[in-house]
Write a structure and sequence with these properties.
Elements (H helix, E strand, L loop, with lengths): L18 H14 L6 H12 L6 H6 L9 H13 L3 E4 L4 E4 L9 E6 L5 E4 L2 H13 L8 E6 L2 H4 L1
Parallel strand pairs: 3-5
Antiparallel strand pairs: 1-2, 3-4
This protein binds zinc ion (3 copies).
One zinc ion (ZN) binds next to loops.
Length: 159
């Protein structure tokens, strides 16, 4: 893969770079959570993996070929599922979704979003997760998940 902003590679990939291997690992992860990786969930995850940039729900819908009966609620349900299982994140400021290469371990999603090229890359942010965990529980708040969106200039655009 020669895409400069493929989010699969992240900074430190914890999941396979290869889409098929990634999907198989995701399936195992889902099964371990007592869930099922349905055809539509797998297809949506594949589209996220193959997308070179954060994907909008309507782009996913348009690319669900062979799943002709898929309607917006179907996509949103699949996206919700992928977020709950940690396999995808929503970037609110872009209203778009990305696959996560760190689903196998606890982390907070920290996205580095470039204001110049609009690329989004997930940072391997385990220390941020620990800090958020400590600080939210000190406030008596039980955190389920967090997505931090950091705006700036990526290394390619800064060069
Ligand atoms: Zn993640
Ligand atoms: Zn990781
Ligand atoms: Zn950039």
């Amino acid at each position: 893969m020669a895409q400069s902003h493929s989010h699969i590679h992240a900074n430190t990939p914890c999941s396979p770079q290869d889409v098929e291997a990634f999907l198989n690992e995701a399936e195992t992860l889902v099964m371990r959570q007592g869930q099922r990786m349905t055809r539509i969930r797998r297809k949506v995850l594949r589209l996220l993996l193959e997308s070179t940039e954060p994907a909008k729900a309507y782009d996913l819908l348009a690319n669900l070929d062979g799943e002709g009966s898929a309607k917006p609620p179907t996509i949103y349900r699949a996206l919700d599922f992928l977020q709950e299982t940690g396999l995808a994140h929503k970037i609110e400021s872009l209203n778009a979704y990305v696959a996560c290469g760190h689903a196998s371990h606890n982390h907070s999603a920290v996205f580095l979003i470039c204001d110049t090229c609009h690329g989004a890359e997930e940072l391997h942010a385990t220390a941020t997760n620990e800090a958020l965990d400590a600080e939210t529980s000190a406030a008596g708040f039980k955190m389920n998940r967090a997505v931090v969106e950091v705006r700036g200039t990526c290394r390619d655009c800064a060069a």
